[in-house]
Amino acid sequence: MSTEADMVDLVIANGILVTPDGMAPGAVAIDGGRILAIGTDDAMPQARRVIDAGGHHVIPGAIDVHVHFREPGFSHKETWASATAAAAIGGVTTVLDMPNTNPPTATAQAVTQKIALASSQALIDFGVYGYLGEDNIADLAPMARAGASAFKLYLGSDNPLVPCPNDGAVLDAMAEIAKLGLRLTVHAENTGILRWREARLRAAGRDDLEAHLEQHADIATVEAVSRIALFSEWTGCKVHIAHESCRHSLPLIADAKRRGVDLTAETCPHYLLLSTDDAERVGGNALRVKPPVRGAGHAGPLFDALSSGLIDMISTDHAPYLPDEKRQASIWRTAPGFPGVETSMRLMLTQVAQGRIGLPDYVRMACEAPARAFGLYPRKGSLLPGTDADIVLIDMAATSTIKAAELHSIGNVTPFEGMATTGAAVMTLVRGHVVMDAGRIVGEPGWGRPLAGRG
Ligand code: DOR
Ligand code: ZN
Asked: Measured in angstroms, how far is the CA atom of residue 337 from the centroid of ligand 2?
């Protein structure tokens, strides 16, 4: 007989545990917010609460290293409360938030303020990016000390809040970031090509979706990926290629890795599952995102690269906008981006259900690889004893249809509207605490904690 003192907080029993190495029937014992043990049901200690997984799959929570949760500054598009509710429902337990907020996350004070704001609302754990600009190289180290998890470089930005720095500043900043040991995530497009082409296309009276694609030509991203790999090799700064959209970048990524450059890459469901052939269904200009969803020949090679591990991970570039911002007649006035954290797991599990990847592959690309790249492994992204009990239960038989009106993001226009999905998260735990159960939020805003400063 166990006494109350011997009991652990929670056992998740009767599941199928999934890691990148495989799947096996089993259970997870959780105490004090951490995984105490994994094993067979009969090897589990007595627990104050037992959750019967009912034969569902048990995976580490997904980690999305590329989200725009919009606060401070753009609460009409999204709040930390709405975004992290969407994430919890989507099986995401940790996010890294981008710095193109207002004020931008470009100083230690802005990092501190964003962490405080997010801490008061978040349901899930989070890290924040510091912005790398021409005028704030001296702020990089203070931002790291204030708790920035990584840095973001916008090559190709036309956003005055986060302008693209010149290459000299980038090189100096990368040498500095190499010393700090954090990773630099790069929006890899060539600003000169983008600016020149936009002016030319506008002068020619073009304002259609095709003009957006011509502006963001393949060579604009291929050049920037090549340059950043070289700068990384030169400075020793770890880099991460954001939202890879183009099959022509893949040989460059492969070559950089072969040379031993510490370079990782992500792609997003919209580059894997959509092409410009979907424009009409999506509503034309609403497909706009930077970099663009390209023509039909890119998704297949990107999917293969993700399956093989050449592209390390799946992220979403969650970037919500209101319907009025997305539904504009002119492409230049149409806001770029859409929400992703609530739909990514469902979309990728549908690929699992269709046999394109295995569930262990999904756990590698959605949980383990992001944790490893951003220094979070094994605390996040694993089911190992001693680590945070961020756990998601998956029902691979759950079928449904994506509907914008049912999403929790404020800006909910999605290019996946009407798509049928198979497989979904049915329960999400963050540090041993159930925050989502059967599609309902049951956690409290403020449960989410910043990543920085915790062992
Ligand atoms: O499409 C995009 N939307 N690309 C970006 O780089 C930024 C993002 C946003 O914040 O809206
Ligand atoms: Zn982004």
From this structure: 8
